[in-house]
Structure formats: structure tokens, C-alpha cells
Amino acid sequence: MRGPFVVVLTLSVALAACGQSKKSNTTFLSINTATISQGSFQPSIKAVSPLESTTNVTLSPETDGRVIKKLVREGDQVQRGQVILVLDNTQLSAQLDASQSQARYDKVNAERYQYLYEQGAVPAKRRDAYFTKAIESRDQAIADKATLNYKFVRSPINGVIGDLDTVKIGDYIKTGEVITGIVDNSTLWTLMEIPASQGSQVKVGQPVRLASQSSPAITGKGEITFVSPYYAIPKSGNPPNTLMVKAEFPNLTGQLKTGQYVTSEIITGSREQLAVPVQAVMMQAQQPFVYQVVPVSKALPNIKRSPNTTAKALKRLEKLPGNTPIVLQTKVQLGDLQNNLYPVISGLKAGDKVAVSNTSRLRSGMPVKVSAGAN
């Protein structure tokens, strides 16, 4: 609920300016105002979290061999199946050539004996023997080709090559030895640890905003794709339980990278609530307040009851026309700032007017002039 006006400064001080002239309110400080109305707010949960690529592999050879060619450099964009390294394959290449030649020869023989069989010149048993040999030769050539292909280390995904300086021409590398990593940063995950007290608010499909910790910040939007079915148990000490939440988003600018920490914000809902512009809010001893603009006739009953009001200040106010606007310092309770608006918890109601300009020059009880066009 909205409480009574809070007049916290002596009105005699506030009216010093208006006492300098009795001609008209044109000498009063000019201000702009805003009318308190409904604003749209989105409750959210914030977390600082690392990014992880949805596609990230380590590259290892599938056979031993000596490096004879490096066809890419670290940082290069590569495509799936593209050759990264070539290992010595002279013997295997020669073996493949021989097996392919034998396969071609045996295929011709099989076709020839098929023709002779159809002419009745050879029995089926002899024809079948040549067909079997042709199949064996073909399969051997296929196997030799596969073995040779292991000498060409290829990228299994589209992505960017990591550090490749550790491998040099002439190095002998072994099966399974990690030689580099390949990362596809086109789609990223952000892995968030949410306090257990907020875990029930999080659901798959909720939107997530994120911003890098760099300046200027790089921003992105995604949505939650996974909520852990259990809470993490603290390993040491007594920190609160947390819930792992994963959100996926497209890295549209390509500027964000795996391992980078970002500020993530899960949007848990949407609501309409009375709002006050950030320009209207001031702080005094950690208490937010605004300067509410009201006609002097409406404010006088509360001013008369204020122990800070002097008889001289009250008399000056009573001489003003009843529709003269004055400002009253009013305590407010506010929620978190969003889009330059604070949600109003208490202290104001719909339709109230507050000052949004020259606020540092205002004093409670000061007559003002509201600029034309102020809402």
C-alpha cells in the first residue's frame, strides 16, 4: 500500500527560492514529470557461467606413422572429411595399386569364364572358382584402400583447428595420440549452476539472455534445453546445493568462444506492474525516494501535520494558488531495474506524477513549474 507523503526536509529551506519573488510561478524551477503507470517486467535468475561448444572433438590418428605433410594451420576453418595431416604411405600405396590391378585382372577372368560357361565350353564349377577369386581380389583392394586412408588424418566435423604447433613434419605419431582439437563454435551451450532455492522456477524452453564480460559486451539469446534431474551435492564446506541448467544458443556473430565466461540471465516469467523511470529515483542512506509532484492544496493537510513544518513556511505555501505544483520527497520500495524502469512495490499508485529532471536541485516542499508537454 501507498503510505502518506514523507516530507523529510524543513519547508522553510525549500521555500527560500520562491520567497525571492512574489510576482508569479514563472521563477520556479522548471521540471519534467512522468506519470506512474503499468510496465512490463520479466523476473529472471542470473548466473556467471562458462560456454561450451555443442560440437568439440580431439583429433587423433588411427594408425602409427611419420608426418610428411601438414595441410592446415591452427585457427583454420575446416570441413568434415578435410585432410589435416598426411602420414608416410609409400608402402601402403604400392600395396593398394597391386591389389587394385589384381582385382581388375580377376574381374576380367571371371567375365570371360562366364561367357565360356554360357557357350557350354567350361563347367559351372570352374566358372564359380574364378568368380570367387574375383570377389576376394575386390574385397582385398577395398581393405587396402581403407588401410591407406588411415594415413590421411581427416577432420570428423566442421570447425576451427586448435593448436597444431606440437606436430611437425618428420614427427612420428602413434595411434590414439592427441594432436589437436577441433571446435565448432557456431552453436554454444552455457552451463549454469542455479541455487537450489531458485531451482523450481527453471523449466526447459525458457529464454536465456547472455552477455560477455568484455567491453563492449557481446550479447546472445537462446533457450534452456536441459535441467538436471538432481541437485549437486557440495564436496566440501557448507555451500548451498545447486542445479545444473544448460541453455543452447546460436553464436550469430562468431565472437564468443568455448571456455569463455558470460553473464547468463534466465527469464522465468512476465508480469505487469506499476513502474517508475530510473531518472526519477534518488538514494538517501540506501533508501530510494522520488519527488512526487502534487498540487499544493492536496499536500497542505499532510504538510500541516509534519513536525518539520515551520509556521513561516506554511504561511508561504497557503498564499500560493491551490493548483500550484510542489514536490514532496516520497520514500518508495522498488524491485530490480529492468529496461530503465523500477517495479514499484510500495510508495506510489497509478496516476501519481514524479519529477524526472533537475531532481538534484529539488527540495521537499519546493514549488515548481511543470514544463509544457511533460507527461
Can you tag this structure with a few keywords?
alpha+beta; Elongation Factor Tu (Ef-tu), domain 3; 4 domains; five-stranded antiparallel β-sheet; 21% helix; 37% strand; disordered N terminus
Regions with little confidence, pLDDT below 50 for 5+ residues? 1-26
Strand content: 35-45%
What is the makeup of the main sheet? Answer: 6 strands, antiparallel, barrel
Biggest sheet strand line-up: 4-11-14-13-12-15
- Order of SSEs: HEEEEEEEHHEEEEEEEEEEEHHEEEEE
**Domain module tally:** 4
Compute the gyration radius: what is it? 39 Å
Helix content: 10-25%
Helix run count: 5
CATH 2nd-level architecture of the largest domain? Beta Barrel
Structural overview:
The chain contains 5 helices and 23 strands. The strands form 5 sheets. It has a 6-stranded antiparallel β-barrel with strand order 4-11-14-13-12-15. Strand 12 and strand 13 form a beta hairpin. It has helices at residues 11-14, 90-118, 124-149, 296-305, 311-319; strands at 29-31, 33-35, 37-41, 44-59, 65-70, 77-78, 83-87, 152-154, 159-161, 172-173, 180-195, 207-212, 219-232, 242-250, 261-267, 271-277, 282-284, 287-295, 325-331, 333-334, 341-346, 353-355, 368-370. The two termini are 24 Å apart. It has 4 domains: 11-40 and 272-370, conserved putative lor/sdh protein from methanococcus maripaludis s2 fold (Beta Barrel), CATH 2.40.420; 44-54 and 185-269, Efflux pump adaptor protein, beta barrel domain (Elongation Factor Tu (Ef-tu), domain 3, Beta Barrel); 61-88 and 151-177, RNA polymerase II/Efflux pump adaptor protein, barrel-sandwich hybrid domain (OB fold (Dihydrolipoamide Acetyltransferase, E2P), Beta Barrel); 89-150, Orthogonal Bundle (Helix Hairpins). Helix 2 (90-118) runs antiparallel to helix 3 (124-149). It has 375 residues and is α+β, with helices and mostly antiparallel strands.
